[in-house]
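> example.struct
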């Protein structure tokens, strides 16, 4: 490194809908927090998706389950992810890949984001094997149909689901 140059902190954005956050998301956040100097968990404020949890509810759960990670911040965004990432000074978009079935969608998004903002790099990480079949959609469905979601979401999410969905 040349004299006078400073090391720029590596900032990554981990974007998503998090409706609700699962143990798979949390696993990825914990892995990402070890690699990047700062990790911004960015919740998409997307009004037309018919979500189960409101943005404030999802944000509260994200904050609660990441409070032990000092370099992790929770934020919300709308508009293009690349614009948000640029505004936040991030160099990396972090995404999780569970199975081959995720690949096509993730590849399309990563390449489109690269076209929109070539400076931004998408980094893929794999969650622990135990979470490779886990998704927010399945958690919502299983819970709504009376199945057990034990071990799939953090305890606070299970508690909030109980309040949200009468069974
Ligand atoms: O958890 P999800 O629903 O898989 O996350 C999808 C997300 C939020 C990463 C994606 O929908 C997104 O980036 N939305 C912001 C709008 C945008 O930038 N769209 C163009 C993507 S190429």
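> example.seq
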């Amino acid at each position: 490194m040349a004299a006078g140059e400073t090391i720029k902190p590596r900032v990554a954005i981990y974007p998503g809908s998090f409706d609700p956050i699962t143990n798979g998301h949390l696993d990825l956040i914990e892995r990402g927090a070890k690699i990047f100097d700062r990790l911004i968990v960015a919740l998409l404020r997307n009004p037309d998706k018919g979500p189960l949890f409101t943005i404030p509810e999802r944000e509260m759960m994200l904050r609660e389950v990441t409070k032990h990670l000092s370099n992790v911040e929770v934020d919300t965004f709308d508009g293009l992810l690349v614009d948000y990432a640029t505004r936040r000074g991030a160099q990396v978009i972090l995404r999780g890949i569970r199975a081959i079935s995720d690949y096509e969608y993730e590849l399309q998004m990563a390449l489109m984001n690269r076209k929109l903002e070539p400076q931004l790099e998408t980094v893929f990480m794999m969650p622990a094997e135990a979470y490779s079949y886990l998704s927010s959609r399945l958690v919502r469905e299983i819970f709504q149909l009376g199945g057990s979601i034990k071990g799939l979401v953090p305890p606070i999410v299970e508690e909030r689901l109980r309040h949200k969905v009468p069974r």
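> remarks
The two ends are 60 Å apart (CA to CA).
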